[in-house]
Amino acid sequence: MTPSKLLLDRHALEDREAATLAVFATRSTEATRRRPLGEEGRHYDYRLAFQRDRDRILHSRAFRRLKHKTQVFVPHLADHPRTRLTHTLEVSQIGRTIARALALNEDLVEAIALGHDLGHTAFGHTGEAVLQRILAGQEDEVPLPGEVVQQVGTFKHNYQSVRVVDLLERRYAGPGLNLTDQVREGILKHTAWKRDFPFPLPDPAGLHLGEACHLEGQVVAVADEIAQQTHDLEDGLRAGSVELGRVERLAISRQIIERLGEAWTSERHRWRRQNLLVRGMIHLLVTDVITAAAGRLGRFLDREGIESHGAMVAAGRSYSQTTVWFSSAVQPLFEELKAFIYQFIINHPQVNRQDWRAHRVITALFRAFWSNPLNLPSYVLLRARDELGFPYLRDLPMAKVAGEVAGRYHSSPGFARLVADHIAGMSDRFALEEYRSLELPGPDHWPAGEVS
After folding, report:
1. Residue 391: inside a domain, yes or no?
2. How many Cα neighbours within 13 Å face the side chain of 325?
């Protein structure tokens, strides 16, 4: 047999995919992009569209930086707390489990999951909240002009993730990663979004802002919730933020303990009990999502009289945003768990101290970059030249810099957004190094340096 007959090209893979996916799953052949793909000397095409997107995200700089971004507990204080990267991988694993059970497109789910948090700031959700306050003119230490505040928009990590993949990553001839619209939409809609939201998306086309997300995107949204709550709980237990006895009294825990039976009562080792409970939560929640979604989808197909993928496409997105979500019986259990984690883990003094530090660091960095743009790396100032049409400050005579900054930079919402982009892309490590360099300089301390 010749080697060519043993190889599956893209068309063969698309045929095999169509034969195995459910009628309500997204096909790779339906993928659309903002720009055509470059040829780049390729002579053999063996990747499906969403598989290619997964690879582009995986090789991006923004993805690599996730390893140094906090999830809840500061990762450099111990080896085992989740980082934004390990959280992302766990979302991908849970998402693919759900997608496979429902015969949805696993490649699309994986690509969305790997890209969903690329826009997250350093220091977890606190970094996001601080940038929101600064851009809203609510931070006295960074007094943005009123006209800038009125036009610059706000900050939200899912929108910033789209901005990263559409604009900020620079690996190809054009800006961004040129991902499919289906992946871009899933990244945006993995958490709450609005049709008219004051955030400068570079290219809103293809995001279907007025519609429910496709089902693969819904899988990532619920997988993100499951991974976040169960693994924040595990990290909190390991850090001693909450006692196992308190967790055992939750309604979801009581159900799991009852199901475990002898496996629970005979286990005397606290760490293994803890792991039994967390695994049990994941199993209960994932199983519930799969069975609840299958029931809703079955009723939807019957109601609409859909028997083929073509009929599904013709029907449009008349399903709800919570088609792939918890059942009405399990939803209250999940909400109780989420409230418990906020009270005892997210609001724990150790985490609160991290949040205070995050506020100080991000506010100081924004103030330093805004008040004197020469504190910024050259590549950010070059973005101001190329995207905003500003003079490149390092080319100006020093006597003209102050006037240029006061007259043009400080009246520009676009420049405020460039500063927000720069800070949002930082890892915890890099942000702390920049803070020390700018606010706590010493004779043996050098700046963190530029990354082109």
Report:
1. yes
2. 18
